[in-house]
Amino acid sequence: SRHDYELHPDGDITVTGNCVPDFKSILALVEESHFKMCPDVPFAGWDVVLSADKNLPVCLLEVNLS
């Protein structure tokens, strides 16, 4: 997909040129959560929070079910 955002729409956070750190482990968390909590749902949107808190750097905020 293509997006033309240079700044995040909810604040002055630069999007262009930034990468999500350790994206593979975040994707694995979402996949594991989906298979455990809603295995019969064919499509779901997961909201993930990245935090500066070293004790909880990644958190699943919510799931939007189809």
Question: What does it look like?
Answer:
With 66 residues, the chain is an alpha+beta fold. 23% of the residues lie in helices and 23% in strands. It is built from 1 helix and 2 strands. The protein has one helix at residues 23-37, and strands at residues 44-50, 58-65. A two-stranded antiparallel sheet has the order 1-2. A hairpin with a 7-residue loop joins strand 1 and strand 2 (58-65). The longest helix is centred in the middle third of the chain and has 15 residues, at 23-37. The protein is globular and about 35 Å long. The chain starts with 22 loop residues before the first helix and ends with a strand. The relative contact order is 0.17.
Structural class: alpha+beta
Extended strand count: 2
Reading the helices and strands in chain order gives HEE
Q: Span between N and C termini?
A: 21 Å
Number of helices: 1
Shape: globular
Q: What topology, given as strand order, has the largest sheet?
A: 1-2
Calculate Rg over CA atoms: 14 Å
Mean pLDDT: 90
Mind describing the biggest β-sheet?
A: 2 strands, antiparallel
Strand content: 15-25%
Helix content: 10-25%
Poorly predicted sequence stretches spanning 5 or more consecutive residues: none
